[in-house]
Specification:
By secondary structure, the chain is of the alpha/beta class. It is built from six helices and 36 strands.
Length: about 375
């Protein structure tokens, strides 16, 4: 049966991360929301109910019987079973929002639903970018169990130091770890297939290092941190998520942040994650077009895909950077850097679209990925939005 992953009302709330993807394609824990639900339901026939300009890359549903899902939450065993038990015309509702339904996508309408059941238990629900790092430990724990249950980890080399319970460490085939320290007393550590932890690294869980990613020499990694596939990370990080295919390869600090794909941080780039007065951090909200109080004392950087910082870039607490921005000017850039900014400051010229394609193509080629026409179309749409 076709799985239909819906953005519901959340797409705009996750900007700038969702300018280039549906909500289901964001990563938190070890997996993306899409990957998690495919694993839970043992079904890889997927489609997306998202913004029209994204549908060429992320296919829209076929007109047939489907399981309609809002993906951005962690289900309990009970809720998973309720979803599996849904019959045609039945739906599950959480906090007055439909989150799962068995329907026919031919003429999709809520009037198809004949029975709605309220979920009474409290779920971990991700409603905004800061929720991704705030609840990342819970997501890592969930995915660790989902991916490793009944399986045996590769052995940790004796050159390493280890603290904690070995059951909280899982090393996939082809991963390399030598002369580093790993501590699972504070959380689980997952090392993905063909990933590498170079010599002198210090890992303090919960941490997920996904497929073919690397912690560079001497890295200091505090949880809850997720590094998606094909990334290079060095220096010091604390409670961050990188979706994938991005580099923070040098010294410098980033904490309590979410970074998209195809981003790059120049050497000694730093992002503050706490205000000097210990007050709550405010972040730019694309829906309200204003800075909103997050209610958090720790919140660093939210960065959209294809954005870059030059060496020695210093970012203030609570900075939001859009898609394909290039930050290289002297001084602290503003707390909201617009899409396609060339320089990083208000009223700077826009990064020319053809040049943005050129840079994106070069960056992707380094990972043996081709910039496709649908990728260009998405970038053009985002370019024309503002």
């Amino acid at each position: 049966m076709q799985l239909v992953f819906s953005d519901a009302q959340y797409w705009e709330d996750f900007l700038p991360l969702t300018f280039t993807r549906p909500v289901a394609e964001m990563r938190c824990g070890i997996l993306t929301f899409s990957e998690r639900w495919q694993k839970i339901l043992n079904n890889t026939e997927i489609s997306f109910f998202t913004e029209m300009y994204l549908q060429e890359k992320f296919p829209e549903p076929e007109k047939k019987e489907s399981l309609f899902l809002v993906t951005n939450f962690l289900p309990s065993e009970n809720v998973i079973q309720q979803i599996k038990d849904l019959k045609q015309g039945e739906a599950l509702v959480y906090e007055d929002e439909l989150i799962a339904a068995k329907i026919n996508m031919d003429g999709f309408s809520l009037q198809q639903i004949e029975k709605m059941t309220d979920i009474k238990e409290e779920l971990v629900f991700f409603k905004k970018p800061t929720d991704l790092f705030t609840y990342n430990q819970k997501a890592i724990d969930f995915d660790f169990e989902l991916l490793t249950k009944g399986r045996t980890s590769q052995e940790l080399s004796s050159t390493n130091g280890f603290l904690g319970d070995k059951n909280d460490l899982f090393i996939e085939e082809g991963a390399q770890i030598e002369f580093s320290t790993l501590n699972t007393k504070t959380g689980k550590i997952y090392i993905g297939k063909n990933a590498e932890v170079m010599e002198g690294c210090h890992l303090r869980g919960p941490i997920a290092l996904c497929e073919a990613s690397k912690f560079n020499l001497g890295s200091k990694i505090y949880g809850a941190t997720t590094i998606g596939p094909h990334c290079k990370v060095g220096g010091e990080v604390n409670n961050i998520i990188i979706f994938g295919y991005s580099n923070k390869g040098h010294d410098g600090f980033i904490g309590n942040s979410v970074i998209g794909e195809w981003c790059n941080f120049g050497a000694d780039s730093n992002s503050s994650n706490m205000k000097n007065n210990y007050g709550n951090v405010r972040l730019w909200n694309y829906r309200t077009k204003a800075f909103e109080d997050t209610g958090l004392q720790f919140a660093g950087l939210i960065m959209g895909d294809h954005s870059k910082t030059a060496i020695n870039t210093q970012l203030n607490t609570g900075t939001v950077i859009g898609v394909a921005s290039n930050i290289f000017k002297e001084g602290f850039p503003p707390n909201h850097v617009e899409n396609f900014s060339w320089g990083g400051f208000k009223d700077d010229e826009k990064f020319k679209l053809d040049k943005a394609y050129e840079v994106a193509g070069r960056a992707m080629a380094r990972r043996n990925v081709v910039l496709q026409e649908e990728d260009k179309a998405i970038l053009k749409h985002v370019f024309d939005m503002y």
